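Q: I have 307 residues here and want to know how they pack in 3D. Can you give me a structure?
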Amino acid sequence: MDLVSQGYETLIHKFVEWAQKQEDIRLAFVLGSRARTDHPADVWSDLDLAIVTRDIRPYIERADWIHNIGKAWLTFLETTNDTMERRVLFDGGLDVDFAMIPLEMLHSMLQQGVDSGIADIFRRGVRVLLDKDNLLPDPGKYASAWKPPDPPVEAEFLQVVNDFWYHAVWTAKHVRRGELWWGKSCCDDKLKSLLRQVLEWHAHATMGPGHDTWLRGRFLEEWADPLVIAQLSGAFAHYDQADVWRALAVTMDLFRKVSLETAKLLGYSYPTGGADYAEELVSRLSQGFNWGQPLISQSQSDNGVAL
């Protein structure tokens, strides 16, 4: 076992020792990479630890309990889905994410049945650390509720496509104005998020719905279209106006290619006229044209939004 893993195991041991004495804590388990066999933890992985308790407030409102587990340098709160998480940076650079789950929420989930998202967590691996009430005697049984994601309906697909082309123009306007922070942020965050969504749909459409696209771009280099991956290095910008224009153009080219292919695979319409119009606007904005002058002919503009 490497030194980093030894450090996390020491934290886990101290946590269990402390949690056993806390009457309100009924269950605790490890999830994520340190409980997975597929893409297991390496030296860069953090520790994801779920705490099921009768009352999450003492662990959210205060942070003094952390020192029972190890020397902490930083801590803050984060909201993820329906849970509150306390994230902690311990000595040695060991980072732990404590997800606080109310006991009644767990009871409700187990009674009503877990959804596919929760089942996905269980199917990847869960390591129970303590279970005072035998709440999770067999975590693996909940994995069966997982099912491959359904393809987007056409309206959902068009929502993402139109959102992308709208914000491509939005990005260009702010870059033209000289607002590099906003323009670069939209190019490298908002537009990339929409590109990532289409890459997921494209991967499922080409490789099958069970093709694993993980969560929010995890391991994207393994599951996405290799031709797109090869061009991604040019799709992100330096904090420089000319480079944002260049990265925006690359991002639009990649998105058009992948989204058009996905539309064909799914048998969906595509707002080609709108995409062409947006690209023309971005091109003219990058060249410093006089805002408000006519862009395309009336016959071209008739091909508008796909509704």
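Q: Anything worth noting?
A: The CA atoms of residues 77 and 86 lie 5 Å apart. Strands lie at 25-31, 47-53, 72-80, 83-90, 94-102, 126-131.
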